[in-house]
Design brief:
The protein is α+β, with helices and mostly antiparallel strands. It is built from eight helices and eight strands. Among the domains are: 65 residues, Double Stranded RNA Binding Domain (2-Layer Sandwich), CATH 3.30.160.20; 80 residues, Ribosomal Protein S5, domain 2 (2-Layer Sandwich), CATH 3.30.230. The radius of gyration is 20 Å and the shape is globular. It binds zinc ion (ZN).
Length: 238
């Protein structure tokens, strides 16, 4: 084995170890969890089996552990991190603002932001907020060129906004890939979207606004009335 192969093997093992450690931590957090709400207790007792089930009964996520239990395969990624300075009479105050994206790579996605004087508490709070803000999205194949009926793209054109930024996602045929800016690729990955075209408006370099607008667009795929209207229009065109 060459030195390079050895290094490669070592790195792979480390990744697996990190993953394993994360799973163990998650398991421990769940077993230590004492639910504050009745619905939280039902989740811990296994009476509610999925987030779909949870939301179908009209529940709101008040405890982030609900997401830990129901979506064990949840992925997390820090999408933005900033050090902010506030000048006060006493001097300069530093704090950190973290933005964390969570998603199950299928139909749930959430974004949370938080501030703290320390780096890791800011990230932890943002992760917690992302879990509390988790929302369902709908995928589909809204592409005229494709019509495969699989959920590899968005079901129809959707737009989302955050301050001056607008992100529009358009259905694309299979094999197109993610034709989007690097700053929102993770959002689509976390939502399980494989093929999509996009248009963006707005002249800011703020990654966070692009991420928020992309999530806003994806969440509107789940706007049932809108999708019914469009389905009707599609039927009429046939
Ligand atoms: Zn298709």
């Amino acid at each position: 084995m060459t030195e390079r192969e050895k290094r490669g093997k070592r790195r792979k093992r480390t990744d697996e170890e990190i993953q394993l450690k994360k799973q163990e931590d998650n398991q421990k957090a769940i077993s230590d969890w004492v639910p504050h709400t009745k619905i939280g207790k039902n989740v811990k007792d296994g009476e509610i089996k999925s987030l779909d089930d949870f939301f179908a009964k009209g529940n709101k996520i008040i405890e982030p552990h609900i997401v830990d239990v129901l979506v064990p395969e949840l992925k997390e990624k820090m999408v933005d991190f900033k050090k902010t300075t506030k000048v006060t009479r006493q001097g300069r105050n530093f704090s950190f603002r973290a933005a964390v994206l969570v998603g199950d790579g299928d139909s749930y996605i959430g974004l949370g932001t938080a501030k703290d004087k320390e780096k890791f508490p800011a990230i932890n709070k943002a992760t917690r907020n992302a879990k509390l803000a988790i929302k369902k999205i709908r995928r589909g194949c809204g592409s005229w060129e494709c019509r495969c009926n699989q959920s590899h793209s968005v079901p129809f054109q959707v737009s989302g906004k955050s301050s001056s930024v607008t992100v529009t996602l358009l259905p694309a045929p299979k094999g197109t890939g993610l034709v989007v800016g690097d700053n929102i690729k993770a959002v689509l990955n976390f939502a399980g979207v494989k093929d999509v075209w996009s248009k963006t408006k707005g002249n800011t370099a703020s990654t966070l606004d692009f991420v928020k607008a992309a999530i806003d667009a994806l969440v509107s795929t789940n706007n049932v009335r809108l999708s019914e209207d469009i389905t009707k229009k599609l039927e009429e065109k046939k």
